[in-house]
Amino acid sequence: MRSGRQCTRSACGRPAVATLTYVYADSTAVLGPLAQLAEPHSYDLCSEHAGRLTAPRGWEVVRVSPEFVPTGPTSDDLLALADAVREAGRPAPVPQAAVLTDHDGPRRGHLRVLPGEG
Fold it and tell me: How much is the pLDDT for 12?
């Protein structure tokens, strides 16, 4: 699901739509669609900053897509999220060995007395 990641430019709070990565060995800046996961050595940019991106002299900018538009969650993303929430809300099954019955011995509060050996 595309998230609420914001543009990494200072004082910009717009949603990120593109990811900028530098290839230092080739003096290239690669601007592509927003990456699925935020990476420490890449920069998320809004559509305005992605459109105005320039590189230093001697560097090349490779634009994977000519235009970056904000995309929201798809219906598949929302269904996956709903399924995950539903699954997390289900109570965990209790193993049969952990179920206490009356013949397990006297109980006091949340503690139980175990029969001793000898």
Answer: 92
- Residue 95 is predicted with a pLDDT of 66
Give me the pLDDT at residue 1, please: 39
CA distances from 59 to 29, 55, 62 (A): 7, 6, 10
Residue that wins the pLDDT comparison between 70 and 58: 58
For 77, list phi and psi in degrees, rounded to 5.
-60, -45
Residue 56 φ/ψ, nearest 5 degrees: -60, 160
Q: How far apart are CA 6 and CA 23, in angstroms?
A: 23
Domain map (residue ranges) of the chain: 1-90
